[in-house]
Structures are given as structure tokens and as C-alpha cells.
């Protein structure tokens, strides 16, 4: 969800939101955000119900299932032992890597990984997309904190191509690929395109790192298991909360020597937390409960996307775009020819008045007279038929 207080350094903000509005606009945006979250909590029907917006009691209830995922009579963790090691081994196995390290945030995990690779390659330059998470959401942490030099391979709303990587006019030590590329619409390349891009980086003697915050739900699009996808990269980061609905945290997986070095830097960066068992336990529950269901979410997201297009056409909206047209994951964008404030108000009012919240994320300005939002389909969305979606679209358009 786009208003997550996530590890991107923008708690409470939403991608694409202007940063210089007057106080009245800021206050109006804050009030609408609060209304939207209240509507989401009170809605009887939503396409996704993110755990992080639940009450403390509801979040603690996640651990009711924990005994099935871990022996609770085992000693707790201390500075990364016990259950944290179990989680690291589990994720390393899923990704087919030699070892893995748990981190409190993905921002820290990726800075450490890329810093380690820079030391090994002798080149602090990191080639990446202009819309990649570190470039957009981390307050220049690469250069300010880690001494890395980001090089933007492309700013087009798609994945970089093999030719762009091969012909880039500066040397780089690491190519970082965000899979899927969230700010471009949760887009993924084809398997052949991804293989070619990785090959182009290898031709330049660069290592490859996957920002796999949402890699978990990419298997359907690629038609490959997680370990085969991860095998293309030298190292991979995965989030433990974006798809798995855990309390937080991230895991970096790769060669054992890299992971051991990363753990040393984790300590230096302040990531050696005394005890992390609640977060680790929630992640293990997520691996058991959510990971097997992600392909089902992706498949139903495609049903929802098609119904949205048909619903807006039937409602007489002159132009609309679902991007990608066939979602690559269980998340995608919707673009409409309306002012984003009007779309946001209509979405909130629908939730408040009908207890059905079709669009639970923020509406942002996509250009003059254009509004864009993100749609996520999870367990709650599986209850929606195509006709349910079309009916909800008609109600939404009636409030514009």
C-alpha cells in the first residue's frame, strides 16, 4: 500500500505526492489520508487488507499461528541467534543461496550488500534505474551514508534493456535490478529479457544484485521457481513484510563470504538488534501462510484488472488505463482522466457510504487532469467476482 510508513524514509507520504503545497492543501491531504485509513479499517469489502493497519491486538494475533511455524519452547534469539538463524537458513534455501542475513530494514540490507560488492569489485558505482527505490525513496543514502555512486541506466517506465546496460558510457561495479519495478507499475521483464540484461552486466565484469522486495510474487510472471530466478543474481534482498505481512525486516542472501562480511557491516550500521524474535516469528508465519498463496493473488489480480477496464468503459469514462494491462504481479496501477483530488474524494466517500472500498490506496497526480493509484489484490480480494468489481466501479464513477 502506498501510504505505508515503510523503510523508504517517507513515513506518511505517498509516491508522486507534491512536496511543496500550501498548509491548507497539506492539512486537507492529511485529513483525507486519515479518512481513507478509517474507511479501510471499517470496510466490509476490500481488495486487500494490509495487516500493518490493524490494531495492536490484531497484529499480535498473527502469532497465534506461530506454533505451527516454529518450536516456541526453543530459547529466544540474542543478537541474531536462534530463531533468526532459522529464518536466515529458510530464506537462503528458498532462494537457492549459500547463506543469508537478517536485517531490520531493506534500506540497510541493500546499502550493506552494495557496499560489500563495491569493496570487492573496486568500483563504488552502482548502475540502476532512475525509479529504483534507493534513488526515489532513501534520501540519497547511497552516496551520503555508504559512499556509493548511483548511475541511472534509464528513466523510462520499464526495466533497463541489455543494450542499455552493455552500452552504458561509464564503468560500474554492480548492476542493481528492482524486481518488480514498483514505481513504474510493478513491472517485470520477460525471462529472456532478464537473462540478457544479466548477461550484459557480466560482459562488463559487473556483479548483479536483485532488489527483490516483492520478488516473492514474481514467479507466476516468469514461470520459474524462486531459486531459479535468484540464481541469475550474485545477491538478492527480499522483504519480510511487503508480501509476507510480517512485522518488518528483510533478508540479504548470497555467497557465504559476502553474507559474513555483510553481518559485520550490519553491526556497524546499527542493525545488530538484541532481540528480533517477534519479527522473525511473524516472517516464518508469512512464509508458511502467505507465500504459497501469492500465485493465487496474482491470478486473481488479472481478473480484477480486466473487470476494472470493462467497468470503466461501461460507466462511460472516456479513457482509462490499467498498467500493466495484464498485471505482472498482484499489484498494478490504474490511471484515470480526472483530477487526483476528485478521484481521492470519490474513493473515500465510497468506502464511508457503502463499506466497500474499491481503491484503498492514495490517488496521486499523474499529470495535468490525470490521476493514478495502485491496486493490490490479496486474500480479501479473492472474494470479489468480476461482476462485483464492475458494480463497485459504477458506484465509484457515480461519486466523481
From TrEMBL:
Give any single GO term for biological process.
L-threonine catabolic process
The Aromatic amino acid beta-eliminating lyase/threonine aldolase domain is annotated at 84-310
InterPro entries per record: ArAA_b-elim_lyase/Thr_aldolase, PyrdxlP-dep_Trfase, PyrdxlP-dep_Trfase_major, PyrdxlP-dep_Trfase_small
Please report a single Pfam family linked to this protein: Beta_elim_lyase
GO-annotated molecular function: L-allo-threonine aldolase activity
GO cellular component entries: cytosol
Residue segments, region Disordered: 1-39
Q: Does the keyword Transit peptide apply?
A: no
State the Gene3D superfamilies in the record. Answer: Aspartate Aminotransferase, domain 1 (3.90.1150.10), Type I PLP-dependent aspartate aminotransferase-like (Major domain) (3.40.640.10)
Q: Which UniProt keywords apply?
A: Pyridoxal phosphate
Q: Which cofactor does it need?
A: pyridoxal 5'-phosphate
The record's similarity note reads: Belongs to the threonine aldolase family.
Q: What is this protein called?
A: Threonine aldolase
Origin organism is: Streptomyces lacrimifluminis
